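User: I'm preparing a small set of examples for a lab meeting where we compare how different chains pack in three dimensions. I only have the primary sequence for this one, and I'd like the structure in token form so I can line it up with the others. Please keep the answer compact; I'll paste it straight into my notes.
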Amino acid sequence: MTRKKLGLVKGRHVMPVTQYVFEEVKDTMNFRSMQDEVRTKLKEVDRLDLYVTGLTSALVEVINYCIYNNVALTLFHYDWKNEKYVPQKMATGNFLRRIQEGER
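Assistant: Understood. Below is the structure token output for the 104-residue chain.
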């Protein structure tokens, strides 16, 4: 298993990554298609740093995958005021165990 740093959707914002979960999202309501793509991209991942682009339906599919597959997920949101990405840890990937061990 590996740790990956990915952007959510290519071309939506400038991000400090070169790989993305989605190269493009043609239909934001085609959840099955997005689920299949997420599963393909994240099948060997146990920790994911995800740079968020604001496409909610795509983001939810990644979060769902991480919950059901025990992938530790940290979202990175762009802070326009300070011009940098800010991390937000999600309650996925043995989150309770990591909190108990002192990781935040």
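A couple of notes for your slides: The beta strands are 2-9, 20-22, 45-51, 72-79, 84-89. Residues 2-100 form one domain.

User: Perfect, thanks.
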